Amino acid sequence: MRSDSHEKGDGVLGRLKGGAYLSGYLRARRRSLLCGLCCLLALVVVTVLGRLPWGVMGYTVLLCAALLFCFAVVGYIDYVRRLRALEPWEQYGETPDSVENLLPETQDPLEKRYQALLLRVCQEKQELRERARQEARENTDYYAMWTHQIKTPISAMRLLLQTAPSERSDELQAELFRIEQYVEMALSYQRLSSDSSDLVLRKYSLATIVKGAVRKYARLFVRKGIRVQLGDMEAAVLTDEKWLGFAIGQILSNSLKYTPSGGQVILAKEDPCTLLIADTGIGIAPEDLPRVFEKGYTGLNGRQERSSTGIGLYLTQCALKKLGHSIEIQSRPGRGTLVRIDLSHRESLLE
Questions:
Q1: Nearest CA among 325, 137, 159 for reference residue 239
Q2: Is 65 helix (H, G, I), strand (E, B) or coil?
Q3: Which band of pLDDT confidence, cut at 50, 70 and 90, is reported for residue 102?
Q4: What kind and span of H or E run contains 30?
């Protein structure tokens, strides 16, 4: 049942809409209405100049005015009907079939030509949209195939390094790991931008996900001499293990890249359910902070670090947004960076 306040609000909106219709009709038909008024004025002038009986001419003027008013009302009703027939267009989409069904019938040759042009434009737009979708699907399939195929030589290279170690095996392993991360970013980029859903939402242990991400980068932390400190993170979070692990991994990758040797990375949980990742790195310039999640934005640090792509944090935010989580970054140059990932949003969305 609707409340009185809603009914009053709808009444005000209805009056405003009716007023907009009326003003639009008067502007659209101003020439016809002005011509009718001029005819009435001509009758009055003829009556005055010809000294004709006012009774007869008065009835004639009133009859003409009544007819003019009736034609105006009928025209206004038809005008409103046509406008309301086009309103569902935005809801139903802009396919040629939907437009053709919604267009009002008309006997006006000029309006028929306008409708034919509109249908042609909609048809061309539909063809362009379908072509763009097809190209997007083909690009997605190609990059998915490429990322899967390139994993074979990467695995072969890793096996060769393990079976035939050399003095530079550690360096080669580290570079090979970076290649794997870039391949994973490319695949994640395609998956996040596609319409298909790759999420498996259920309760996971936050400690297990975090330790898995840290373990993945453990060799690089040791190689660079960066200490990793894990706090108490025993909590069950509603998320997707793979995508949350990917987001945490991207943040750890940035910490590795911008934290000098001898630095420290701390991971802890803040109540109610927020993951904190802090490092003692070089920090982020204040003017770069509002734009760190922009696609392709590298900032001052990225221009100094030529290998930066500006995609990592963008993908991180996209993945967390899909999961219903949020991310916030605080940083000061030379004082390190603090990342907060709020994992409680997904639960609040389901309540």
A1: 325
A2: helix
A3: low
A4: helix 30-50
How buried is residue 255: exposed, middle or buried, by Cβ count under 10 Å (0-12/13-18/19+)?
Answer: buried
**Residue 29 vs residues 68, 85, 146: alpha-carbon distances, Å:** 12, 19, 62
The CA dihedral of 328, 281, 268, 182, to the nearest 10 degrees, is: 70
What span, in angstroms and rounded, lies between the C-alpha atoms of 217 and 226?
11
For residue 77, the model assigns a pLDDT of: 84
pLDDT on residue 306: 59
Residue length of the chain: 351
Reported pTM:
0.61
Residues contacting residue 235 through CB under 8 Å, at least 6 positions apart:
205, 206, 207, 269, 273, 343
Cis peptide before 290 (omega within 30 of 0): no
Which segments of 29-163 does DSSP mark as H helices, in order?
A: 30-50, 54-86, 89-92, 96-102, 109-163
CA distance 34 to 11: 31
Query: What is the mean predicted confidence (pLDDT) over 282-293?
Result: 90
Question: Does the pLDDT at position 63 exceed 60?
Answer: yes
Task: Tell me, rounded to whole angstroms, the distance of Cα 316 from its chain centroid.
Answer: 15
Residue entry with tokens 């802009």: 94
| CA proximity to 47, closest of 66, 32, 35, 64 | 64
CA separation for the pair 340, 80 (Å, rounded): 54
